[in-house]
Amino acid sequence: MKKASFVKTFIYLITIILLSCFDYSNIRAQEPPLTIEPIYPDNQHKATKGYFDLSVNPGEKLNLKVKIINNEDKDVTVTITPANAFTSPTGGMMYEQEAGSENTRLLDDAVRLAEYIDVKGSVTVSPHSAIEVPIAVNTPKVKGENALGGLLFTMQGEKTEKAQEVEKGTANFILKTETVYAIALQLNFLEEVPSNYLFGESGFHADTAQVYIEMLNDANKIEENVSGNYTVTNQSGEELFSGRYGPFKMAPNSWIRFPMQWGHDTLDDGTYTLTMDGTAGDSKVTTSKTFKIANKDVEQYVEKNETKLPTAATESTVPTWVWVGGAILFGLIMFFIGRRKK
Keywords in UniProt for this one (predicted)? Predict the structure, then answer.
C-alpha cells in the first residue's frame, strides 16, 4: 500500500509541475484593437457581408456610413483613405491608392474609384466606444458592369525609440507601427458587358527564377474564376514542369504579370514554350507563348543564390517547459531508484 501511495503521489507531483510550466497565454484569443463594420444601405446585396456590394446607376450620389469600434483602453486616431482596386500579381484583389509594383497596374480606361469617394481624413475614437463615419460616393458615369475600389482605415501605433551604434557614435531613430484595415466598395451597374480576358507576353524573371505571363482583364467588370493549367517545354518539345493556377478574380480593367516558379532541376539558356489552358468566367482560354532565357539570366540567378548567407541551423521547437519538466522527472526517477536500492 505504501508503494502504491508513493507512486500516486509521484504521478500527481509530476502532473502539477508540468501544468505549472505550461504557458496558457499563447492560446488566449486576443480582441483586435479596432472593429470596422459597414452600415449597409437598402441597395446592398443581401447575401454579401463584410463589404459594400451595391446596385447603383451611373451618376448616382450615395451617402454611406461605416462604424468604427475602439476596443482599446485609450483614444485611437484612425486615418481614412479612399483606395483603388488592383489585381494582385499572384491573383485576387488588393486595395491601394497606387499599386506600388511593376507587376500590376490599371489599364488606361480603368475607373479609379478613389477619385469618386469623399470621406473625412481622420477621426479619433474614445476608449471602448464607437462612432459612425459618413462616406459620400459619386458613382462614375461609365458603361460597364462593375466599378471597384475601397476604403483604408489606418490606426497609428505607438512610437518606439531605438539606438544603433554607428562609426561616429550612437544614432537614434524612431519606429512607428501602423495597422491597416480595408473595406471593399463594389458598385454594380444594370448594364452587362462581355468578358474581355486576354493573355499578353511571356518572359522570365532572372532574380527569382520565375516564368511569367501577362494577364489582362480589359472590361468594366470583375473577371471571375480565372484558373487553369500551365506547362513549360524546351526546344525539343520535352515537358520540363507543369502546374495549376487559380481560381482567383481580377479587378476591372487591370493588368498583371502572373508568376510561375521554375520547376525543373536545371536552368539553362535557350528558348522555351509556355502553354496556358484554363477558364476565365464562363469562357475557355488557351495560349502558347515562347520566351527566352539568356546566359546572363542564368549567371545572375546562380550568382544571387551563391552569395546568399548560409541557412542558419534550425532552432529547437521543443518548448522550454518540456525540458524543465523532463529534467525534474529524470531527477525524481533517479531519486526513487536510489531509495529502492537502499
Answer: Membrane, Transmembrane, Transmembrane helix
